Structures are given as C-alpha cells and as structure tokens.
C-alpha cells in the first residue's frame, strides 16, 4: 500500500474551496422529480441533472477546479490530458475560460463530432493510434515538449474535489437523502460523492451503478483490490475505464455496494427517462435508474438521489433505433 | 362583433386565482439558459420548460384550472373534450387528480400511444371518424348523454387563465423581459401570455411564432379578422388549429407581431435545442427559436423569454431521421 500513502487524498475543505473556485464557470444544475418514476420504483427520487451542465457533463466541475487552481507560473504551459470523452470537452472548456493552452491526445479513430467539439472549445488535438501503448507514448511526448500540467480524467485530487461539489449541491437542494446512486467507471464521480457525503451526511448510503458488461469495479469491490479489464464493451461508453489508486481509496472505504445492469436494462431505463422526464441523457446516466428498478426492495420508501452524469449523445444514432 | 360581447374575457384576478388553484397539481417548471444559444442569437434567452410539466405540456395548467374550478354539483357529470393531443392528456390527468369522469372524443385513427396515455391517466375515450362533422356529432352526443362540462382546448376563459400562469412564473423567475416568444396554434398560450404581461409587464413585447405551413394566425393578424385553414400540414402538429373569438381578442389587442418559420427551420431549431440544451421537446416548441434565429435584429441585445410548450414526441420517429 506504499502507493496510497504517497498520494494526496482531498478533504472536505478542498471541496468547499473547489465550489467557490468553479462557481462562476458552471451551472447550478436543477434537481428534477417525477411522480411517474416515484410510483414505478416505490422510492422518492431526486435527479441531479448534470446533463444540463456546461460542456454537457459533470466532468466540467473537476476540470474547472484543476484549471482555475493552477498557479500563475504554470499558466503559460497550460494543461493536457488523454480522453476521447467528456473530460476532453470539459478540460478544453475550462482552459478556454482561463485562456490557457489545452492539449488533448485522442485516438485518430475518435468520432469527428467529438474532435470538432473539443476544437470548438479551443482545445488542441494531437492524434494517436487507437492503442494504449501509442496513447501513452504520444502523451508522454506532448507533456515533455509543452511542460503542460497533466489533468487525469479521474485519478487526481483536484478532479475528485471538483466532482464532489455535485453531491454537495444535491444534498443542499433536495435535503438529506437516505441513499444516492451514481454511475461508476474510473470512479471520479463516486469518489467525489463519498468525499462530500462521508463528511456532511454520513448516514446516506452510497451505491455505485455499473454495466454488467464492464463490471471491473464490482469485481474489484468484491475481491478487495483493483481488477482492471482490458477492453470491456458496453453502450455506457463513459464507464469502460478502470479504478485507480485514489478512486479505489474512496470506493473501498465508503461505497455501500456496487449494483449491476445489463445492456438491455440500461437502454430501457434510458428510453423511459427520455420519454417520461423529457431529458436527453447518455447511456451511462441511465445505469443508476436501471439498477434501482431491479433492486426495488433496497430503495422502497427511501429518499434517493440519482446523478444524471451527462447528455452528450449522437442524436442520429439512438440505441433504441439499432436494428 | 356581437359574439365577442357575449363571451367572458378573463382578467388578471382570474390568473392569480388560477395559480393558487392549480399549484398543488402542476410543477413549477425550471427556466433554463444557454450561453451557446445566447451567442448564436445575440439575445439573452430564458427558456421556460413546460416540456417538464405534468402530462408533458403547459396544457395541464388550463385543464387543471377548469377541473378544479368546477362547482361541487358538476363533479358527478365530469368533463369532456375533443382533442387528440396534449389537451386530451392534460384534461385526463386533471380529472384523475380530482377523481371525476373525463371523456375524450378522438378520431379512431389517432396513434395508439396517445390513446394509451389518455387511458393511463384515467380518461375515457369515445372514437369518431377522422372528420370534423363526425367529431362534432359524436361529441354532441357525449355531452347530451353525460351532461359533462365541455372544456375547450383553448377557447375557454378558464383555460386561458390557466395558461396565463406560465408567463407569470417566467416573469417572476427570469425577471422583466423585453420580449417573449411563444408558439401559436389556437392561441391559448399566447392569449394567456397577453393576459398576464399586459397587466404586470406592459412593456414586454409579445411575439407569436407560427409554422409557415399553417400560417392562418399570421394571415388573420394581417387581415384583421379570423381566417381558418382547413387542413394545414406541418410537423408542429399542436399548431394546426385555428384562432377562435376569445383567443382572437387577445391576439388582436396585445400581440406585437406573428413570425413564421419553415418546416426545415423548425426541425433544425429542434435538433439544435436537443443537442445543446439536452431537452426533449416537441416540434411546436422549436418554432420560437426558429423565428428568433431568422429575425436576429429584432431580438439582439434583448432579454427574451421562450415558452417550450411541451415534450410529447415519439422517440422512435424523430424528424431528423426521416429519409
């Protein structure tokens, strides 16, 4: 466990500082309720809508906290990351707001729409081959050349403190919750949720929701150590990445359980939410509702928060249209 | 103009009473903003999201006001209407909440999903042939037999006073506006908007947005009397109906102008809103943004409210997927 002792574990004071720091650059997203969903699940649900967040996802919280916390002497060199998802968009957005350079290493096979969105926020894309080895080599080169600060998508205390502001707002706006359910991929959102609630609402049980097809966090949780899958396949494409030491710290200490949902259950929950709540959200965001629907006993009669993590989908290719 | 003198024209006191009456049965829907949309239009836009409303549309305001304002001796006979759209859903919802009968006359050709939704709220469907003559004959029979109170989808002072609560909330939550743009079909929402704002914010200019393919309100406005089209074809299917005497009263007295948008402009504005604001809304709801985008000079630098009227769409048949 030597590695764990070397990393800085953010505390609640970091969360409060993050919230003050990022407030001008993020939306205070609304908390929606639905009597239909309450009747369906038997629970009282509070949906924190980060799909309405800047850049379309909660990731802008952590990215903004890292960018706006950078000391002045680091500004000229800017920030860098590797991601083809919401973290790339979010870091580009935040860097753009602070007018500092942002470089994103992305596989050349990433969708053009994602690349265009990163560039739209002012991000600079360096392409790599679609393999881990190429990505790491290219990224190392970028950092060596630019001296940019690496902002990891989740295994970074600044990022986790930023994501932690989401459950803080939910707690304030919805009132104390019996439970909260958030998706788990690398564990950044869940870690932030653990960080906040273990401090301000230790009785709230924290559940992580994971696709059965990418259940590495579930298996890690049961085994008591990190297990990483090589290339899981799930429609919830934000949830394919593995836990790392910092997120494992929070998951192993504060998560009540990890619940799984099949691809069909995820798509059904996504469709139902679009249809009844009229919100556009990503497949990843549907995993919590899918797990609540198949574990009703666990949540019946309880006040339950759900994090809708993002809304960046391709509207021309919706999963219920797949033939 | 003899007809106009016989009808009761609701006043602002009716709006305040309606708001108190319906509050327990409706959502206070959020007002969303989008820096992307502000940059795109050059205006500061405030989107009042009635797509998140109970039954998925603003129509529940007027329907609830009619249903919960019914005197006790009318309750047993219930309410009735003819509609295959959001008013049918809304009246069924409101009647269900008050546990009184609700009969809806619908063409037998109406989509099964719509019929199922009406029945889901407890409404009783009587089918007619898909013609005006059959609808009127069947509806007259229903009312004669049941003695039910007819709640017209828009040409009813109770309904207009109910719809008027929407712009009241928007005015309070967003602050005073320079202009407001709402879709126009039969004119219920626009009339309610005129009723509220002419009383509490007479400097706010009220624009109605209409599909070019169903421009009967536009032509009525220019001609100075009601012109009704027979069977206009537009993707904005909530906006096909003509003005009536009561809504004409408000439109002719208080509307600044009626702006038109083509089918393509409506679909483009709808897609853009889904993509950037992550909300599911009907084609009708996209007409205001479409008209703002083609009349930028009119709104540049102004604080502009937009009513997103509803979110009831068939997710399996989205217009940008049409081949």
Summarize this structure briefly:
The structure is a homodimer of 323-residue chains. The model of chain A has no long low-confidence stretch (mean pLDDT 94).
Task: From the 3D structure, determine the CATH topology of the largest domain in chain A.
Answer: Rossmann fold
Number of helical runs of chain A? 14
Say how many strands of chain A there are: 10
Largest sheet of chain A: 6 strands, mixed
Largest interface: A-B, 21 and 21 residues
Strand order of the largest sheet of chain A: 1-2-10-7-8-9
CATH architecture of the largest domain in chain A: 3-Layer(aba) Sandwich
Anisotropy-based shape of chain A: globular
Radius of gyration over C-alpha positions of chain A, nearest whole angstrom: 18 Å
Mean pLDDT of chain A: 94
Can you identify the CATH class of the largest domain in chain A?
Alpha Beta
Q: Helix proportion of residues of chain A, in percent?
A: 40-55%
Number of domains of chain A: 2
Quaternary class: homodimer
Instruction: Note poorly predicted spans of chain A.
Output: none
